[in-house]
Prior knowledge:
4 copies of one chain form a homotetramer. By secondary structure, chain A is α/β, with parallel strands linked by helices. The first copy, chain A, is built from 8 helices and 13 strands. In chain A, the strands form 3 sheets. The first copy, chain A, has a 7-stranded mixed sheet with strand order 7-6-5-8-9-10-11, with helices on both faces. A 4-stranded antiparallel sheet of chain A has the order 2-3-1-4, covered by helices on one side. A two-stranded antiparallel sheet of chain A has the order 12-13. In chain A, helix 1 packs antiparallel against helix 2 and helix 3 (114-124) runs parallel beside helix 8 (261-284). The relative contact order of chain A is 0.12. Residues 57-70 of chain A have low confidence and may be disordered. Chains in contact: A-B, A-C, A-D, B-C, B-D, C-D.
Amino acid sequence: MKDSAVLLIDCPDRKGLVARVSSLLYRHGANILHADQHQDHELGLFFMRVEFALNGSATGTADSPSETPHAAPFDIEAFRAEFDHLAVELSMRWQLTATTRRPRVALFCSQYLHCMADLLYRRRAGELACEIPIIVSNHRDVERLADFYAIPFHYIPVTAATRAAAEARHLDLLEHHGIELVVLARYMQILSPAFVARYPAGIVNVHHSFLPAFTGARPYHAAHARGVKLIGATSHYVTEILDDGPIIEQDVARISHRDQVEDLVARGRDLERIVLSRAVRWHLDRRILCYGNKTVVFD
Amino acid sequence: MKDSAVLLIDCPDRKGLVARVSSLLYRHGANILHADQHQDHELGLFFMRVEFALNGSATGTADSPSETPHAAPFDIEAFRAEFDHLAVELSMRWQLTATTRRPRVALFCSQYLHCMADLLYRRRAGELACEIPIIVSNHRDVERLADFYAIPFHYIPVTAATRAAAEARHLDLLEHHGIELVVLARYMQILSPAFVARYPAGIVNVHHSFLPAFTGARPYHAAHARGVKLIGATSHYVTEILDDGPIIEQDVARISHRDQVEDLVARGRDLERIVLSRAVRWHLDRRILCYGNKTVVFD
Amino acid sequence: MKDSAVLLIDCPDRKGLVARVSSLLYRHGANILHADQHQDHELGLFFMRVEFALNGSATGTADSPSETPHAAPFDIEAFRAEFDHLAVELSMRWQLTATTRRPRVALFCSQYLHCMADLLYRRRAGELACEIPIIVSNHRDVERLADFYAIPFHYIPVTAATRAAAEARHLDLLEHHGIELVVLARYMQILSPAFVARYPAGIVNVHHSFLPAFTGARPYHAAHARGVKLIGATSHYVTEILDDGPIIEQDVARISHRDQVEDLVARGRDLERIVLSRAVRWHLDRRILCYGNKTVVFD
Amino acid sequence: MKDSAVLLIDCPDRKGLVARVSSLLYRHGANILHADQHQDHELGLFFMRVEFALNGSATGTADSPSETPHAAPFDIEAFRAEFDHLAVELSMRWQLTATTRRPRVALFCSQYLHCMADLLYRRRAGELACEIPIIVSNHRDVERLADFYAIPFHYIPVTAATRAAAEARHLDLLEHHGIELVVLARYMQILSPAFVARYPAGIVNVHHSFLPAFTGARPYHAAHARGVKLIGATSHYVTEILDDGPIIEQDVARISHRDQVEDLVARGRDLERIVLSRAVRWHLDRRILCYGNKTVVFD
Lengths: 299, 299, 299, 299
């Protein structure tokens, strides 16, 4: 695990933003590992992501000791205090997070387990830097898989009559476990606006089509009926409007007239796994900033 | 140029279709170069494409003379006559075409010339086996390009007031030149239902989005506004309903938050060229069968 | 599970092959679900795959009863007997297999488990129609995963000194369990020519490069050193020559100057999973024919 | 045309580089439009590209006048003088170029004209910001195309006996026309080491394979013989060693057992056009930095 921190900023664009942020980091002795910026010239917005080492002698730096203003470990709290003044002056929204801090993630699914199995495997393999305190489903199919990965499983069935009560249980669980990110890994229930409002840019969903084509239910059936030559999948943040939130990632696969709906479903599983796992990894690596109904994804 | 013929069939599915068609070809001494079939099990339809040599000693056959029932050139008219009986019995729609016969194609465009330039170059390079007796445009931009390729250019401006008259001139031209295929290479005028009805599965268009997403005008603007991560282009047969005809080919390219509308337009040009030129080539090679609102594209 | 059979043929090319095979099937009342052919004109070879229903009333046929020569179930043994005469006459190599017969597959791996986990998940999900009686590894890492899927695990460590003995144990196990296909899911030991000779076109490997680039060890390091802009993975049948057997499937992913070797390794895992699982599925579905050092993969 | 400038830097990595460069730009009143950095941690190298407006009131800035340190146009020469001191201190290699300055490019080709036609079309369409004073070929095929675009054509045949003399003429022409970039658009002659040495990172070639696979002549034949499932094309800077220079861009297309060598050649043409035109555009936009045998391509 790298001993580093990520600073994410968005604010109104103006001259000198890069200079002021990078100078402040330099004065505190930060060793920048990677920096990226983006301007939306239409809206006059500025976005920045900086990753820097927290340790004076971070791997891969070319500094000789004599040139280093600060050889000691980076004092993240001192920096945070000073940066806060800058942020107020420049109307910045910002977050500064140590890479070692692992966000707490809840995974939701229904009967289809391919995305769930994929995310759990990737976390075990070290691709996803997070804690997963709970798995939630309205079906029992995932239980054995949750056991295998030793993650507490919460079975919360949902019917029209119990929807409100189920969601109350969901929210209790999320709060109790300090969940910061909810991943809907083919969870087939629609969340209420109140639920969504509790986790702005904090719920990631995968939709099994190339949005905005084929919103709603049964997109593979719709794609087959329309006779498209490529199918797609989309990962996005959840907003109040179904299948309409900021898109994080999309991918497609070629199909032909030979492919029946069940072939599309099978091909689509691979797409869904890939676009969802990328979205989760980028979110955990603090690579994503939302604005309006779009995302900036720093690579 | 290969001395071969292509037989395209579609009919209600039933047992023995492959056997009966291939046996008839065999009795006439056809040397099959490539054959492909498709069944749509839901609709109970059968589709077949067979390409066979017209010359008894076609390149690449493994036949020794003693085993060949017919060493003489294939008698296409005799076969046609006998096949017609079979077709009636089995309710087949069919076409049999010598590969050497080059369909007559009209190219339409407006101001954007990238697809037009690409199609003309590909024909010159031998990728498109067709005649192009006319180029039609409601703008003069294409004139020099038409001259370079020595193809007669017809400038037919279109306004709300002249639309009907312009279309009458179009249809006269198409009839006069014996046009079998109309290619809309970014032709930005909508054709009337009457025009479309004259060329069923005979008008190919390119739409600059991944249909069915972003139908209608300014799809790149719509894609940018939605924040998609891939843009697409679609070639399709034109039907009465705008951007709704049977899809022939689609392709996509990855974009990012950095790309502005003009970047999408530039990236999209490459997609449009590729999906349109593939559609035209496959049509000319008699690889496409339409049914319902879909296509079978034999590879 | 479809109640169907697949007939795979390769033989010297000659006129009338499609007619004779399809007529024989028709006389036996086969209802062809899908047929595909290929000719290699340079080598004068013919390849064919036919899938047909074994049940007279197979789903999706359009036959009316009165037109069906045989309403009874297809008599596969009677067909096999008659086809054998044709095969001898036409010098065919052929195999005819009921789709319900599930091949017996052994999975080998070393420490990296991503391909193994993927194959096991896909089989559970119904994507791979096979039995997996044994998992073999020279490491213990896979043991828990094997337990989860309730597949007997055989730990057979390999050193220079024990290589021959280990391979003898491998061969005993494969024979004892009637294994027809060996899948090397990132198994990092080289098999002896004697082992390979026992399973012609019966051992599938995944190599973590776009072959023929970067054969041998540490291909991601080599790709990084060369500065390529795409990385790849390749699944292929194993022959005596390392990384040289007939290629079944390849895929690539885009990388950039930002990607370090460990990023390539992580990106590559997804490629490896996909190309290996496709190869195994196509093999199990009898879609692959080898000839020379190439494959025909019927889609 | 944007009124902007691009600053490209590479130097040994050390702390504070971003801060020092961006602060200097800020003091001179630059309005940064886009900035990107890269560190190679293994080699201890730092790379940076900054694009900034030369006009105080550049489109899309969010600055209110009162906050702008310099409302006057950016004084590029004053900046250049001061930056030079910084560059010496920090051992930087750098170039600063106004976007309006259009590099002078020579295009070379042989008989195959698809890349040449594509580059000429793209420049006409505004995708390539350069002057093209000369087209050079050892064949006459390109002459009509050069005429169409009104670019002087130089026919310089090359034989074993005349190679040295031909190259002397090439170099004279390049010098006479002040050529900064030579594009080998399927030019099938090998350049001498002396020629290559005159244009370090100044000659772009397209090779019709996925390098490092299939170097040398007839790569499509080699790919067909090996039975690969994807073909590729590569654009790269030319170095003394054939097909070995720093790779700029690569792309691939899927093929199947049906594709013969001529199909690969046809499919490959599209790949070659795309990877070469991207390389040329990125070079012209000053997006590429070479180091060792690799490229950084800023997006």
